[in-house]
What we know:
The complex is a heterodimer of chains A (about 400) and B (about 270). By secondary structure, chain A is α+β, with helices and mostly antiparallel strands. Chain A folds into two domains: about 1-260, P-loop containing nucleotide triphosphate hydrolases (Rossmann fold, 3-Layer(aba) Sandwich), CATH 3.40.50.300; about 275-399, CATH 2.40.50.100. Chain A is about 25% helix and about 30% strand. Chain A has nine helices and 20 strands. In chain A, the strands form four sheets. Chain A has a six-stranded mixed beta sheet, with helices on both faces. In chain A, a hairpin with a 2-residue loop joins strand 11 (about 275-285) and strand 12 (about 290-295). Chain A is elongated and about 75 Å long. The model of chain A is unreliable at about 1-30 (pLDDT under 50). Chain B has one domain (about 50-270): MetI-like fold. Chain B has helices at about 1-5, 10-35, 50-60, 60-95, 100-110, 115-130, 135-160, 165-170, 175-205, 210-215, 220-230, 235-265. In chain B, helix 4 (about 60-95) runs antiparallel to helix 9 (about 175-205), helix 7 (about 135-160) packs across helix 9 and helix 9 packs antiparallel against helix 12 (about 235-265). The longest helix of chain B is centred in the first third of the chain and has 34 residues, at about 60-95. The chains are: A alpha+beta (about 400), B mainly alpha (about 270). The interface of A and B includes residues 118, 126, 136, 140 and 200 of A.
Amino acid sequence: MAEEIQKSEPELERAAEPAKIEPPVVAASLPIKLEPDMPLLRIEAVAKKFGNFRAVDHVSLDVRAGEFFALLGPSGCGKTTLLRMLAGFETPDEGRILLGGKDIAHVLPHERPVNMMFQNYALFPHLSVRDNIAFGLKRAGMARVDIETRVAEMMALVRLEGMEKRKPDQLSGGQRQRVALARALARRPQVLLLDEPLAALDKKLRESTQRELMELQRRLGMTFIVVTHDQEEAMTMASRIGVMDAGRLDQVATPRDLYEAPASRWIAEFVGDINLFEGQPGAAEGGRLAVSTRDAGTLYVTEPRKALKGAVSVAIRPEKVKLSRRAPAVDEANAFNRLEGTITDVSYLGGQTTYKVKLDSGATVSSTMANTTRIVDAYLAGQRVVAWFTSDDCLVLDQ
Amino acid sequence: MASRRINRITRFNVTALALGFAFLYLPIVILVIYSFNDSRLVTVWGGWSLRWYREFFNDRAMLDAAWMSLRVAAVSATIATILGTLAAVALTRGERFGGRMLFSGMLYAPLVMPEVISGLSLLLLFVALDAGRGFWTVTIAHTTLTMCFVTVVVQSRLGQIDRSLEEAAMDLGCNPAQAFLSVTLPLIIPSIAAGWMLAFTLSLDDVVIASFTTGPGSATLPIRIYSEVRLGVKPEINAICTMVIALIAIVITAASFASRLSRVQGESAAPL
């Protein structure tokens, strides 16, 4: 069902990109002959145990060339272990990792055409910025002149010109991050792995670096796989996101599909905020399904394509819940779900305001409203309101 | 408030400090001063002179003993540094092998083992092996004594270095051995140097173990001094001791500079 929702804009943009791409600073990585439909990277039923703990539990995943892929999950979900298996620092117990059609699951790290940017950057403290970037090139046996050219290219790429002679401890956090990126990119890997690349940066810097990473990835046409626990970061940067929990890959989807059509209740709660009402599905009528919920009476949802069995949850994102003082006129076409209650909490966040509405049943609904005008007729705590939303905006998830 | 009062320079603080330092260093200062004594008698001041230094450099037996000591110290420190560094690497970087705790415990045993016992046991071993006692037996004995000190110094430094540095090196094309040599080794080299200097000074001033394991004609300087002193202290001994003190002071200062260098470099190596 996820795939059927329209393609998100970033996807479409990306698809159109190669035609008008400017000459890349770094030429496309080593030419590999791929079968037309063969993904660049294919992970097949890969499993890894540490003692009795299943860190990665039979994960399968395809990543196409030129994708910006994010592995998202809470800490301890196995995403870093999976990334380390791609880099070669862990060996899978089961399964295959195919890169360009060749199984690399048991190839040593230094023999893989992938590079990694480490979470704490792992810059060599005894080497200058220049020598850090040149490190991998020297190992590859590149000629001295070519190394100089490549290092200069990389310094320009990450805008660090003039810093060649500095040692890592003479750099700011953001500069270190860029050195780490340049070092990992210098060997022109087929796949660049990034382990929590922005976790050590402060919020403002993180946002600008996100944009830079995306811009860079698009310009180089390189395949990026990033591991993150920050869903906003994953949503902003990645063209596709794989959500992991307890060693399993639960859903792989575009950011939009992940948010608007999560595959499970767990993903719906992990990615963004959501209101959930548990209930039993009733009769379907005219494309709408009535669900009798414990806390919010009968809610009407657009009939899902998938057959439902047993108890379900009706899920609605806070920004799709509108508030008004009086119930809106009943519009048959939309069949508004209307819930009456009292505002208990108002969180003003500048661009938007989040209200908590306590229903008469005792349950709470959150509603986020954009502050689109400067002078807003805001609601106050203690006020009676009607929270309403359309049946199209509701999701039905298995319990 | 209270801390400010303690930090203030009061007459009591100065006196306490002076007494403390006097307790530690007065004997050594007296020894150094008397090494420049012109008198033949150790306890009678006869004016300044370098006479006993000249005497030492003309004393063939003493010079041989000093040369022997320096060679034993240099060779045993070098072997101990290589073995001690390998042990430290095995303990911090190796896979968790069975008997690891036992291994590290046994490694540190010489730290607390009475020297008489290790000296005697080595003597018994060399006799059982029918090994002629001399330069090599002392060197081996000193290596077993000093290796654990090197391990302690290097291991503490290795523990501070982020493992991901070696992983980054492997990611950039190094095999594990190259990763160690090009990244880890440069970062721990100051500690290795400090460990070497520590082993060198320990070997230089050891009497107990050397006296068990040395043979005729291969006395180290401390043993030579010890046997001379039994026949009465000559002022020449003072001159020798002063030079040994100077040598050890230089080596220890170098060692502490080396480990400070190591720490400064390590700041950016530590995980964020």
